[in-house]
Design a protein that fits this description.
elongated; 116 residues; transport; hydrogen ion transport
């Protein structure tokens, strides 16, 4: 009977050691997964930063800097405004004369809907 009890005790101890090993293996697996996830996040962040850097280089190469684009737009806008002001100045007199001619040229007539 003692050997049977001793055998059961050995089985229980072995089962306990096996459960501890399985638990430790699960913990190691969870740590490895967490570490792999962190490494993947770091790698993704590095890739994203590299692509952003490449995009900024491409943008600067093909479009110029934002300040350069803003300055170019400002110059074009001023040029257009100056062109419009010159066109207004050159056409102002004739347009005023045409409007005044239309105002002064009154032709009295009876409205077509009037019935006498």
């Amino acid at each position: 009977m003692a050997s049977q009890t001793q055998g059961i005790q050995q089985l229980l101890a072995a089962e306990k050691r096996a459960a501890e090993k399985v638990s430790e293996a699960r913990k190691r697996k969870a740590r490895r997964l967490k570490q792999a996830k962190e490494e993947a996040q770091d790698e993704i962040e590095k890739y994203r930063k590299e692509r952003e850097r490449q995009f900024r280089e491409f943008e600067a190469k093909h479009m110029g800097s934002k300040e350069g684009v803003a300055a170019k737009i400002e110059v074009e806008t001023k040029q257009r405004i100056d062109d419009m002001n010159r066109a207004i100045a050159s056409q102002k007199g004739p347009v005023i004369n045409d409007v005044l001619d239309l105002v002064y040229d009154i032709k009295p007539e009876i409205h077509r809907n009037y019935r006498a």
